[in-house]
From TrEMBL:
It comes from the Archaea. Coiled coil: none annotated. CDD domains: POD-like_MBL-fold, RHOD. Residues 260-350, 364-453 form the Rhodanese domain. It comes from Methanoculleus frigidifontis. Gene3D superfamilies: Rhodanese-like domain (3.40.250.10), Ribonuclease Z/Hydroxyacylglutathione hydrolase-like (3.60.15.10). This is MBL fold metallo-hydrolase.
Amino acid sequence: MLFEKVKSDLLAHNSYMIGSGSEAAVIDPRRDCRIYTKIAESRNMTITRIFETHRNEDYVVGSRELARPTGAEIYHGAAIDFGYGNAAGEGDTFSIGTLRLRVLETPGHTKESLSYVLSDTAVSDDPLMVFTGDALFAGDVGRTDLAGDEMREKMSGMLYDSLHDKILPLGDDVIVCPAHGAGSVCGGDISDREYTTIGYEKEHTPLLQWSKADFVEYKKHEHLYVPPYFRKMEDLNLHGPPLIYTIPHLAALSPKAIREMQNAQILDIRSPTSFAGGHVPGSINIWREGLPAFIGYLLKYDDPIVLIDDFNLDLDPVIRHFVRLGYDTITGYLAGGFAAWFRQGRELETAGIWSPRDLAEHLTDPSVFILDVRDITHRERDGYIPGSHHIYVGNLDQNLGRVPRDKHIVAHCDVGYKGSLAASILQKNGYENVTNLLGGTHGWEGAGYSLTRD
């Protein structure tokens, strides 16, 4: 029996490959899908089926991309009208060698959500694993807000029923294989556990121990951010994303070529300290590990994207982040790195940097506006710097009217990376006096200052 989990790091997406004999199947594949055919080739297997648990919102599903070279059939839920593939419903079964997949309809996260129960009939007909998509995670359950506020109560009730009537009764020893791990925006607080079981989740996940009324009430008021790119993902995954065939090749661009590009989105992927020391005017600073979380908030899908780095090392994993989120307009990078920009005497911008002590000395200065750009959960749970104002960095671009232009803006997060992103957004929008608090709230407490906790 073949079982392999394929993780897309930073995006926190899990896909799975199963197989028996000469046949294999893939569940929720990613768009850069060569990894699955490599696994199949190494085992002398042929991928014959592709299963989707639901229309994903946070990445472009790779089903069509994988079906092109393999000829595999695609299956997904019947409750919405997909533009490709085949509908599957409650009780349908599929054989992959001696393996059997049985379909459970488990709506709640989305109305067409499916879970797939795996049995190895060479050993037993009993369930061995269940692929739960976004219904059940390690330590959490799926979000129920994406169908709109008017549907939250209904979707929450559906998810409760799916969990308690379909998934949990499968048996305590059944291995749970969710579509996401810790850090995903598809749950509220997913645990950092590689593997889990139904019994472990029943025992240790409080949401699974609540009454239906309490569960629905909590999910109705759960506060989760909705990145704007979700709507683009839903549309692509409903109708079928365009085929890319391979990872894009980026052009090595000169400073002159970048400046002559129409509507270029200049993305600086260096560290906050490098960005503060000097950067291309109008560029946005998202550190490499932050790309999957924030490009969908800030970048347009129709305009070319250009990368700025110091040495342009190992750009392949960077490109894959864009491919997985449907940004096919990623065009090139600054040849020679940022040094090529200043060697030609091109215009530069800098951003301010403060230490916690610098901020402490100006804490009551009326000319200083302290901007906390963490998510609201961290602010409420961990506390905040006295006198700070809160706007989540993902929503900053739409809330600039709340940030005064006649004050010195000191942006901060928990460490300094999102603070640098916020500073770059403000500078791009014409704010002239912007500083990033290096160390953020962690550095603030590390320096001996207190956070306010309500």
